[in-house]
Design goal:
The chain is α+β, with helices and mostly antiparallel strands. The chain is about 45% helix and about 15% strand.
Length: about 260
């Protein structure tokens, strides 16, 4: 296989922590050639899928009820499969179209193992290249990644973002169904839109694309400089171009905060 494919496969085999690193590298066209970054973009939402019966068992265990008592329908084919969780479309008994995000089995244990290894590596690198502060960088990366496996944090973040942007109807965040949310499961409204790197999005009229860019930039600047709460995992798999020229932010598991100081 070509080297970029081998590199991507090795990151997949190493597990979720290294897949996260690959996702970050996929965005660094300033550091890596296009042949590698384009291959690493497959790590954003096209990873190996956990069996549907296993996912259903996790949902029922976490929420304490049979799936049929909570959802009228769950699509057995996932919408996407990422490093930590996978997402399935579903419909609630009330008729709401939703997505169910479920932490994959065994992921939490692997992340804790990798965290110990990376912290040890950070301590060693601190002696070798202290000017790059590797211990601090690795600690921050590990802390952010470990927070992602508690989906209740994502539910809280979605509510925070929605409140912060209540006065900007063209910036959309999914609404969380709290009664169908637990540590390893979160149920949110389904946002039907285009990925910004899709051909359909790139074929939109220039004026529409320019407005979307301005809207997205405004949202990010506002998160950073006004609210102090920002989406810390922005990549094409976590953004949507919605009907009516709106921008959607999804996958709110990684959120950063800036205090006034």
């Amino acid at each position: 296989l070509p080297f970029p494919v081998q590199f991507r496969r090795r990151l997949e085999l190493l597990g979720p922590t290294f897949i996260k690193l690959g996702q970050i590298l996929s965005l660094r066209a300033d550091l890596l050639p296009e042949s590698i970054t384009s291959e690493l973009r497959n790590l954003l939402d096209r990873l190996p899928v956990a069996p549907f019966d296993v996912i259903t068992a996790i949902v029922e265990r976490e929420l304490g009820r049979p799936a049929g008592a909570m959802y009228a329908w769950i699509d057995p084919v996932p919408l996407g499969s990422a490093s930590i969780a996978q997402i399935h479309r579903a419909r609630t008994l009330d008729g709401d179209d939703v997505v169910i995000k479920v932490v994959k089995p065994g992921i939490r244990e692997v992340l804790y193992r990798d965290a110990r290894l990376l912290r040890g590596l950070g301590a060693i690198l601190q002696w070798v290249i202290p000017h790059y502060t590797p211990r601090r960088i690795i600690r921050e990366f590990v802390d952010y990644t470990l927070r992602e496996v508690d989906l209740r944090r994502e539910a809280d973040s979605a509510a925070t973002f929605a409140a912060n942007f209540a006065d900007v109807p063209d910036v959309v965040f999914p609404r969380v169904h709290r009664e169908l949310t637990a540590r390893s499961v979160v149920t949110m409204t389904f946002l039907d839109g285009l990925r910004p790197d899709s051909l359909e999005a790139q074929r939109l009229p220039l004026a529409v694309r320019e407005r979307l860019v301005d809207l997205g930039a405004m949202a990010i600047i506002r998160m950073l400089y006004q609210d102090g709460v920002f989406h810390a995992d922005l990549h094409p798999g976590n953004l949507l171009v919605l009907p009516g020229g709106k921008v959607g932010f999804i996958d709110l598991g990684m959120v950063g905060r800036l205090d006034p100081e």
